[in-house]
User: What shape does this take?
Amino acid sequence: GIKNNKILDAMCNTPRHIFMDEALSSRAYEDVALPIGYNQTISQPYIVARMTELLLEFGRLEKVLEIGTGCGYQTAILAQLVDHVYSIERIWPLQRKAKSHLWDLKLKNVSFLHGDGILGWPKHAPYDGILVSAAPSEVPDTLLQQMALGGVMIVPVGKAGNQRLQRVIRIQGGFEVEELEPVSFVPFLPGTEM
Assistant: This one.
């Protein structure tokens, strides 16, 4: 159901197996979420493509904030389609591995921050797009405030077993929220881990 050929090309050109442990690499191209350690997962390819397509539906974006670098797979896809990705990860070893993978793929338009995703990255705001890879019970106001006018946020919202993907667009004087399909993401947690 993904129609954007640039996204499909980026997915085809990105070796998903390098983003996971060797023991699971034989399952790397199945359309499923898989564990990457630290109680985190690499999202299923369809969800990565779907969220990227929703984010880019209105055209190419310059600055995108990604909350939850994880293993770096979604980051790698975004880096091929936007001018610059600012990616925040709360778990230091995951971020370190992700940096290494993106460097190996020669994707150098990504800035990394080990930090609390709830705070966003105000230093580089406002962002044309924000993609959130974990599910808060409601969209953090701090992230809404870092969106540019006309900016788009793709975020799974809700508690485990009852999450929906949302597209939030910042309009003059407020936000337009579009409820999309049901999804299943790890919870959006505050703080950082070393």
User: Anything to note?
Assistant: The chain has a mean pLDDT of 93. The chain is about 25% helix and 30% strand.
